[in-house]
From TrEMBL:
Pfam families registered for this protein in UniProt: dCache_1, GGDEF, HAMP, PAS
Protein name as annotated: Diguanylate cyclase
Entries under SUPFAM superfamilies matching the protein: HAMP domain-like, Nucleotide cyclase, PYP-like sensor domain (PAS domain)
PROSITE patterns attached to this UniProt entry: GGDEF (PS50887), HAMP (PS50885), PAC (PS50113), PAS (PS50112)
Predominant place of localization: membrane
InterPro entries: Biofilm_reg_signaling, dCache_1, GGDEF_dom, HAMP_dom, Nucleotide_cyclase, PAS, PAS-assoc_C, PAS-like_dom_sf
Amino acid sequence: MDVAVILPRSLKFRMTLVVILLVLAATMIVTWVALVLAERDMKAIIGNQQFALLSSSAAQIDAQLNAKKLLLASLAEDLPPAATASAADMLEFVNRHPIARREFRNLVIYNRQGDLLHTQGQGVATLDTSASLRAYLAKVLADGKAIVSPPYKSVMTGAPAVVIMQPVKDAEGRATMMLGGSLDLADSSMLEQVAGQRSGRTGYSFIFTTRGILVQHPDRALLLEDVTKRDNLNLGMQRALEGFEGWTEATGQDGTPSIYSYKRLRSADWIVGARYPVDEAFAPMIAMRHKGMLAAAAFAAMAGVMAWLAVRAMLRPLSLLRQHIGEIRNGSADIGVLQPCRPDEIGDLAGAFHELMAEREAAQKAVRDSEALISSILERAPDAFVSCAADGAITNWNEAAERTFGWRRAEALGRDIAELIVPPAMRGAHQAGMQAFGEGRMGRLINARVRITALHRDGHEVPVELSVGSIRHGGAYYATAFLHDITERVAFEERLTQLARIDPLTGIANRLYFEEVLQQAVVRARRNRMPLALAYLDIDRFKSINDSLGHAAGDAVLCEFATRLGANVRAADTVARIAGDEFVIIFEQVDQADEAARMAQKIVAAIRVPFTVDGAPLLVTTSIGIALLDGDDLAPAALVARADAALYQAKRQGRDGYALAP
Ligand SMILES: Nc1nc2c(ncn2[C@@H]2O[C@H](COP(=O)(O)OP(=O)(O)OP(=O)(O)O)[C@@H](O)[C@H]2O)c(=O)[nH]1
């Protein structure tokens, strides 16, 4: 059988899943971190590259602007004074310098006050006479060198333009005028070079002044726009206006994240900028990322398969262990198959199982032995051992129970214990006990030894000493009882009781018995208003019999005396010897003094008949004192005292007679 089939699939599945997820997560994280680092490096490379390109464009523009400034300076030196006054002279001057016509759209001459004296060239820019122009001209005069003007819209053509003004100095070196050359921003070969410097497909370059006026932009409509007035001026532009040079990432007007580079010109207050949308710049990077992630996923899937195979192989010993345990459970193998055989955790586990199972088997054997011992002890116990379920059905019945109650074990098992051995008079108490047991309230009864009577099969009652308990077996509780048959003990006790009340010499009742009977007779007489008489007897001069014939002869006389008393009273009367030669007779139903006297006379006469002692006749007489139960004093002791007093009276009257208590 394939062990993989019996191994819980979920364990293997979960382990494989965990490995796959861990590998996937680790691969993804490593890939992602690597890509992020690569992207950062690549971004820096692209940014630096773009900034380098931009710097070279800026240098070119600087060179060209400087060249134009130099050209203007040389023209200014060459400018004849007449040119400032005559248009024809001016034309002639320009014609002499064809390079000026090529480099500038238009040439202009201003006086120190800022008035336009001449203009020459294709009708483009003439500066307006605004305050900003005047400030610019003043600065040119003050610095004494060529300066590029702020951009402006030509008054004549409406085209965006700038002008470079050069002071014209007279022989004394004073700046008397200014020679200016204008540049059409929308149509400048110099600036178009910048426009040609574009990164990628959608990137572009642009120029703006340090005050934020656009001087060059692929969208001509934006020229001369003041970017500082934009609502959402991008962060790069803002930083560039504050003096930043270099590259940075920012989001453009259209919301596209881009790499922006900025470089300031030295020859003019201009900033050259370039924009390269990130999407395009990183297109290869993004493609690489997708490929990287795909590769990572594929790797994780592969790792998953490998993990599954590895888990399968590693769990094989565990599967075998499980199989062995199953075989041990169904009995087709013994615990020897669990012997530790591997030096690893599974080997330890098998070893631990083996130990546990061995301990369990030993414990089970010990329990079985102990159960067998207990069963054997119970079976051979001298006392009856009986157990029953909560419903009373008998579950145990040992040999002693068979002897004590007469039922064979096979007959007793399963029968209701109440109907089998509980006498009818005791069934109420038995039911209450069983109910207490059923409700778990048997604590009070446990271990208490009580004397009860049980019922024998043949119907006679068996006195037993009962001690109850409870045992738990197979999840249920059973009431247990040891019943010690005390029939013999009870008989013995009865005999003892009897013996304690009998005078051993004469075999008649002794003082103890007399006192008990008198007590009961007085109670009975009082309750039923029945008559009662007590006779107190003493053998006359008994001491002399003893002294003359010996103690044995005295004993024989005592025995004969007792016999004669018994023979002369009714069965209901009680004769007792209460001391040496003193006897009493309780006459029930004698209340007449006459009748009592008659009884006394009868006894005196019966004793007077000679005794035979040691074959010889012996004359024995007795004196009797009689007292009747007095209505005033009903205490038994008082009755005895009165009879005793009457006896004393009889002795004084000469013995061999009787006297009645007053
Ligand atoms: N043989 C024998 N003698 C006993 C027994 N118990 C008591 N005696 C004797 O009985 C005698 C009782 O004597 P008393 O009743 O005092 O005197 P008494 O000789 O009978 O004279 P009165 O009673 O005055 O007639 C004593 O000598 C006792 O030792 C007994 O069990 N056996």
